[in-house]
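Go through this pair.

…
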Amino acid sequence: MGVLQWFVDLGASVMLPIIIFVFALVLGTKVGKAFRSGLTVGIGFIGINLVIGLLGNSLGPAAQAMVENFGVELSIIDVGWPAAAAISYGTALGSLAIPIGIGLNVILLTFGLMRTLNVDVWNYWHAAFTGALVYALTGSFPIGIATIVVHLMLLFLLADLIQKDIEKFYGFKNITFPHGTSIPSYIIAKPLNWVFDRIPGFNKLEANPDTIQKRLGVLGDSTVMGVLIGLIIGILAGYDVKGVLNLGVQTGAVLLLLPRMVSLLMEGLSPISEAAGNFVKKRFPGRDLYIGMDSALAIGHPAVLSASLLIVPITLFLAVILPGNRVLPFADLATIPFIIALMVPVFRGNIIRTIIGASLYIGVGLYIATWVAPLLTSAAKSANFDMGNNQSISSLVDGAVWTTFLFVWLPKIFSWYSIALIGVIVLGLMIYINKIKVKKVIGVAEDPTAKLN
């Protein structure tokens, strides 16, 4: 267990290249090519983290200044996903999430109950997060472990289901995102998009980055839009001219640099994706294999970045005006692109739909983050996490997502029965989708006269 914890503590930018390298060798990739792929992926993640860090370091203080200008005091601080991940893995229960996740992934793939081979094992912390909260709530180690298992099963199931939308919109062949922060918003976006499609006039409104740039010219360019949004946020924060201009250039730099870092990441993954496809075709004829990756691959899209920057001030505004909210969004403002990355494909890149949908989603999420704060604070103390001068902490990632509420609230009411019920439902859907439904599709392919029920 000590060796595993040491490996986890290396961080995603080191741990993932090692996993990619080993995975590539297993798939039959030459050593040199496998090493270069893993190294490129690691460098890509470092680049993405640097750009996200730039965004956080510039937007964070501006956001706090904006809230202070409104004269509102919010007592629960958003400590951000790095703190949430550290708290999750810092408990004895949470440290088991990675071996549980790897074993579960292998078992489900072996029995043909899923198609996603998840190499992004670092992000198993999302399941460790809910497991740690349930343990803090119930004091039951077995219920906490069961929560981790069922949460991972749900993420694997949804990763299979969303892959076609990811490939169609982002162009990532055989890649999906079993990401605990991004996938929940996809599920909410589906019914919202159905509603949007049925609103007269609104359903005809096109607002993707290409359309906006055609109408606005240079002002519609994503980098220029980033500069303008940064200038507006700087003005609302009460910055002087120098501070406003610096913030504008920094946000513009994020929109220019982040897509390039994602391209570097994809350069490293391309040989692995190709090797995985060949491996599956040879050994599992008729089966598709998806590679589970971090949704960082998606956040460089212009629609994601443009919508995210506009949602930052909206999130702060909602935090101020929503009655009963006590969370001050801060550290996770820079990770809003991860929260909405899988909403964008559902809305077909429409920025206006994304902003409306994300605003509704985050508005409700602030209440979830407020509700979960006592449990997260308790888990932080158990993990010996340094909370500084903060008496109560929370996080938008993953404190404000509906899966956290589902997995934590139900055990509070129904004990372990609720986790067992969710597990049975998820397993049943896996069997139906990957066994029964696939057999029907194959049967139609072999016999064109057959009908799907």
